[in-house]
């Protein structure tokens, strides 16, 4: 069986093609046979995002030196934020003036903006770069937002970018009891997400309720005077 290279000291060489290596056997007659590829396996270890309560978050900051990164928009941040935190918003106000954005912004402002005081936003294109410019991948970061959704989204982006020590407050700052953190602003951390007409709904209800109760008591205890007042009212 002439021509079988395995019995005549064949020349063994290797060729590299990107991430795959091939074994090449050269036989006595110059024939080349390619063996099975040797595949390299790359193992990537991902960091695990730590979701904690407000009390546990306080311990991470005090005992383990976690830095607090507030990813809310500027309006909520201005209403109330944790003292000495870093403000790097995941979303920023959308001021684009193309036709589609203008229509969406108007619809948003007529509902969510009016009733809940929510800003029409878009993803912050500088978010990741802003974090990287202030923190190393080994930094311990506690991400906070109002409800917990934006901080979870920010944590995923940072994890994919190589950050290894990330924690988020479950349910966000709305679950933080007054006094847990030193805060700055005109309201409590848990109320920083409240704005628009919903904030005065309770006050309006209280005023109307008081007026109705007073009117009922007046009619009950002073029926004659109430009747005279009704007679003085202009008829339609």
From TrEMBL:
SMART domains: RHOD. It comes from the Eukaryota. The keyword Zinc does not apply. CDD domains: RHOD (cd00158). Keywords: Membrane, Transmembrane, Transmembrane helix. Residues 62-185 form the Rhodanese domain. InterPro entries: Rhodanese-like_dom, Rhodanese-like_dom_sf, STR9. The chain crosses the membrane at residues 204-222. GO terms for cellular component: chloroplast. The keyword Magnesium does not apply. This is Rhodanese-like domain-containing protein. It comes from Actinidia chinensis var. chinensis (Chinese soft-hair kiwi).
């Amino acid at each position: 069986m002439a021509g079988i290279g395995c019995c005549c000291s064949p020349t063994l060489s290797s060729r590299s093609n990107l991430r795959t290596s091939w074994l090449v056997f050269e036989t006595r007659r110059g024939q080349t046979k390619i063996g099975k590829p040797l595949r390299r396996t790359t193992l990537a270890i991902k960091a695990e995002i730590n979701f904690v309560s407000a009390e546990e978050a306080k311990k991470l900051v005090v005992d383990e030196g976690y830095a607090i990164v507030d990813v809310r928009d500027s309006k909520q941040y201005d209403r109330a934020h944790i003292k000495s935190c870093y403000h790097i918003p995941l979303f920023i106000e959308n001021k684009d003036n193309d036709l589609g954005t203008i229509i969406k912004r108007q619809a948003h402002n007529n509902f969510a903006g009016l009733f809940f005081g929510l800003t029409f936003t878009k993803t912050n294109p500088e978010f990741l770069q802003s974090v990287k410019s202030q923190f190393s991948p080994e930094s311990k970061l506690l991400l906070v937002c109002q409800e917990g959704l934006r901080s979870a989204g920010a944590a995923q982006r940072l994890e994919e970018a190589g950050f290894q020590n990330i924690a988020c407050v479950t349910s966000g700052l709305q679950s933080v009891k007054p006094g847990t953190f030193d805060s700055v602003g005109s309201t409590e951390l848990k109320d920083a997400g409240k704005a628009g007409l919903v904030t005065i709904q309770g006050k309006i209800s209280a005023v109307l309720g008081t007026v109705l109760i007073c009117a009922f008591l007046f009619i009950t205890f002073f029926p004659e005077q109430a009747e005279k007042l009704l007679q003085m009212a202009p008829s339609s």
